[in-house]
Specification:
Structural class: alpha/beta
Distance between the termini: 62 Å
Radius of gyration: 31 Å
Number of helices: 19
Strand order of the largest sheet: 8-13-12-11-9-10
Strand content: 15-25%
Mean pLDDT: 90
Shape: elongated
Number of domains: 3
CATH topology of the largest domain: Rossmann fold
Oligomer: single chain
Helix content: 25-40%
Low-confidence stretches: none
CATH architecture of the largest domain: 3-Layer(aba) Sandwich
Largest sheet: 6 strands, mixed
CATH superfamily of the largest domain: Methylglyoxal synthase-like domain
Length: 504
């Protein structure tokens, strides 16, 4: 037997060479791998003995040679192939062991320059792997060191059956296709203007199967194309995550990480029924819970900072399905794990550029609505204007509408939600729901925010009945003049943001 070894990751290689030596397999190698194997005391020959050519272009060209690829691709059951191999006096390889330059690691390292990144695009490695994988009928092809122990055992017993060789080939084609995809994504993203390309290729790896999907009769799984974000969360305590747990945890974590200070979001059915951003985490949690303590029961809590001890004590007083945060203090973790059924999750927050949603026969793609609003483009349309002190609270109220389903009405006090109306077929219903929920906490400084324009003045009249003195909305209705006139009549401050925040 003959093996060709050329690897970047040398993990487990020494032990595998033990196996090759024990079965009298000849080893051929290249460059740094050749030096490594020699340094460990194994007999190894250079592929230059086969190619009769030195490695050139600083190692860019080593294995890209007909004598190498013939030895890998030869079909030993084909007489024409055997005739060519004999006529040209070429060796046949039985095993190829190869893994690739770390393109992804280098390309995501902020300290890497463009030339370093390009130099880590492996050419010869994928070619060898694909050639050996194509010829899996007789070839053993390895790129994953985790497979070394299994193949070692099989080689020692004298047989690596066809099913295993096919399994290894499938892994290779999957790996090389993903490798090429990462190179494409990197080079394609150099053009920042190409946010929505003509061709969209998505490549996600399954992380795990879920017990079921949205309902028990539906299958469900979670996939990811990166190493961070909520999809790659760590479950510290509690039962496995469900499909809906993932959805709600993502909504809660996104909302909490969209505000500064110590922000707490409480989510039910992907709506932020409680949201507060404060300098003190315990206060933020209490004010978020105040938003709707009834809906909070069985909900999801998202935090943008490490869970503190006093916050954990307060969280224990309410039943929640999930708590998600960047981390938990040792003391808070000890307290929260006393509840058997609560799920405790840690995740880093991955800012995403695009949103995807399936429709029958296709996919809708849009830029994610994750910009933090500024007041520079607002229009102050009523006779009574907000003060500069009001602006921070107005920004919080307006940004909060992104985390409530349309038609969304959010009523805030300071930097906390005190009432929401979500998912209603008309805006008046949403105003009614939000105002009823907030009625005990509305003051002269409360703000009503609407994710889209008011088509009629009726919502303004209803807001006035609940003592709302400030309204922020996008504007843009054909009846804006009527709406502003009604606000002036009722002595309400009204601000047009000139942008909407629909979330369907």
């Amino acid at each position: 037997m003959k093996a060709l070894i050329s690897v970047y990751d040398k993990q487990g290689l020494e032990q595998f060479c033990d196996t090759l030596e024990s079965i009298n397999c000849e080893i051929y190698s290249t460059g740094g791998t050749l030096k490594y194997i020699k340094s460990k005391g194994y007999k190894v020959r250079s592929i230059t003995e086969i190619t009769n050519h030195e490695e050139i272009l600083e190692g860019r060209v080593k294995t890209l040679h007909p004598n190498i690829h013939a030895g890998i691709l030869a079909d030993t059951e084909n007489p024409n192939h055997l005739s060519d191999m004999k006529r040209l006096n070429l060796d046949i390889f039985d095993i190829v062991i190869n893994n690739l330059y770390p393109f992804e690691k280098v390309s995501t390292d902020p300290n890497s320059n463009f030339d370093q990144i390009i130099e880590n695009i492996d050419i010869g490695g994928p070619s060898m792997l694909r050639a050996a994988a194509k010829n899996f009928k007789r070839m053993i092809v390895l790129y994953d060191p985790d497979d070394y122990p299994l193949i070692s055992e099989k080689l020692k017993t004298g047989s690596v059956d066809l099913n295993i060789r096919k399994y290894l080939a499938i892994k290779v084609f999957k790996n090389t296709s993903e490798y090429d995809r990462k190179i494409f994504d990197y080079l394609n993203n150099q053009n920042k203007e190409d946010l929505l390309p003509e061709k969209l290729d998505l490549n996600f790896n399954k992380l795990k199967d879920l017990r079921y999907g949205e309902n028990p009769h539906q299958k469900g799984s979670v996939y990811s194309n990166q190493e961070n974000g909520v999809a790659n969360l760590k479950l510290l305590h509690g039962k496995s995550m469900s499909y809906l747990n993932y959805l709600d945890a993502d909504a809660a974590f996104f909302a909490a990480n969209s505000f500064s200070n110590k922000c707490v979001s409480i989510v039910k059915h992907t709506n932020s029924c409680g949201l507060s951003s404060q300098s003190n985490q315990l206060e933020a949690y209490k004010l978020a819970l105040r938003g709707d303590p009834v809906s909070a029961f069985g909900g999801i809590v998202g935090l943008n900072t490490e869970v503190e001890l006093e916050t954990a004590k307060e969280i224990l007083k309410t039943f929640y399905d999930v708590i998600i945060a960047p981390s938990f203090s040792k003391e808070s973790l000890e307290i929260l794990t006393s509840k058997k059924n609560i799920r405790l999750l840690t995740s880093d927050f991955a800012k995403q550029v695009l949103d995807y949603r399936t429709i029958n026969g296709g996919l809708l793609v849009q830029e994610k609505d994750n910009d933090k609003e500024l007041s520079d483009d607002w229009t102050f349309v009523t006779k009574i204007k907000p003060s500069k002190i009001d602006l921070e609270n107005l920004l919080f109220a307006w940004n909060s509408t992104k985390f409530v389903k349309s038609n969304a009405i959010v009523i805030t006090e300071g930097k906390s939600i005190i009432g929401i109306g979500s998912g209603q077929p008309n805006r008046v219903n949403s105003v009614n729901l939000a105002a009823d929920r907030a009625s005990d906490y509305i003051t002269d400084s409360s703000i009503l925010a609407s994710d889209a324009f008011f088509p009629f003045a009726d919502s303004v009249e209803l807001a006035a009945k609940h003592n709302i003195k400030t309204i922020i909305q996008p504007g843009g209705s054909i009846r804006d003049d009527e709406v502003v006139e009604k606000a002036n009549e009722l002595k309400i401050k009204m601000i047009f943001t000139n942008k909407r925040h629909f979330s369907h």
